[in-house]
Design brief:
By secondary structure, the protein is of the alpha+beta class. It has helices at residues 102-109, 125-134, 147-163, 171-188, 197-203, 208-219, 223-241, 246-252, 258-269, 273-279; strands spanning 10-12, 22-29, 46-54, 56-60, 65-68, 72-76, 82-85, 92-100, 119-121. The protein has two domains: 10-169, Jelly Rolls (Sandwich); 173-279, Homeodomain-like (Arc Repressor Mutant, subunit A, Orthogonal Bundle), CATH 1.10.10.60. The strands form two sheets. It has a six-stranded antiparallel beta sheet. A hairpin with a 4-residue loop joins strand 4 (56-60) and strand 5. The longest helix has 19 residues, at 223-241.
Length: 285
């Protein structure tokens, strides 16, 4: 079976969340050792682990034990002791997402997340790898999607899994996915430059109206709004990872001054930059 090799990436997202939930961690781990050995762990959040290559085992406190092979997805529950990973002579490459919130607790309560069936097999492998990778946007680009959008994307993927609607996947879907990924990459490039989306349309050899309609149909928002959201996403990331002032961030992202930056930030995030900073977790000492 073909091995999927997405670009290596890892994200920690404890700082921001939506009212209905959030994704706190996501990553791609080549040659992972898995979780647990002779003992089991309790994660405290939900998680999905998608095996890209290798083999191993899964076991939990409900007495479920499964052999895991490429294409298997493990669904981890927050209060269920479990362990998974390759054996002594095996290897394991995975993608994973850790998530929590009221909306996922509701899925659990209604039985949409089946504790009696924590391991599911997903095919084709490359399609599902791209679906999981797309939940947080392009991982090789700076910034991140708004947390509400991430939660909605994750719910869409979970719904596709539990309903089996991926059978409708076609080459047409793959072409759309590749085109949208490329368009997003172009819109996200050089966020400090006030590039108009029509320039991206030119790059794709399309007139702007056709580009705008196709992008909006596939992404759910117009390209200009997508780019503006990504600019504010980048500002959030800079606040989390640096000591730059609002003025420095504003200038680095192409705003004329920090006052206009603060206004746009509040419009998209819901709070001012100063309030957002106060809500960030303090560094451990």
């Amino acid at each position: 079976m073909k091995q999927i090799k997405p670009q290596s990436w890892f994200r920690v997202r404890h700082a921001v969340s939506s009212e209905i939930g959030s994704i706190s961690q996501a990553g791609y781990l080549p040659d992972s050792r898995g979780i647990g050995d002779s003992t089991m762990r309790v994660l405290g959040e939900y998680a999905v682990v998608f095996l890209l290559a290798g083999s191993g085992h899964y076991a939990d406190a409900n007495g479920i034990a499964s052999v895991i092979t490429p294409g298997d997805m493990i669904l981890v529950f927050p209060d269920l002791p479990h362990r998974y990973g390759p054996g002594p002579d095996e290897h394991w490459t995975e993608m994973y997402l850790v998530f929590n919130g009221p909306v996922f607790a509701l899925w659990d309560e209604k039985g949409l997340l089946d504790r009696a069936n924590p391991v599911m097999h997903l095919e084709p492998l490359d399609y599902w790898a791209k679906r999981f990778e797309s939940i947080l946007g392009a991982p090789h680009e700076a910034g991140h999607a708004p947390p509400l959008l991430e939660v909605c994307r994750l719910q869409e993927v979970l719904a596709e899994i539990v309903t089996g609607s991926s059978h409708a996947y076609s080459q047409h879907d793959a072409t759309d996915s590749q085109w949208l990924s490329h368009a997003c990459m172009l819109l996200e490039t050089d966020l400090a430059n006030r590039r108009h989306p029509w320039q991206v349309a030119d790059h794709l050899d399309m007139d702007y109206e056709r580009f705008r309609k196709r992008f909006t149909q596939l992404m759910g928002i117009p390209p200009a709004r997508f780019r503006n959201n990504r600019i504010i996403d980048r500002a959030c990331e800079m606040m989390q990872s640096s000591s730059l002032s609002d003025k420095q961030i504003a200038l680095s992202l192409g705003f004329c001054d920090e006052f206009y930056f603060s206004k746009r930030f509040k419009q998209l995030v819901g709070v001012t930059p100063s309030v957002f900073r106060r809500r960030l977790p303090r560094a451990q000492t």
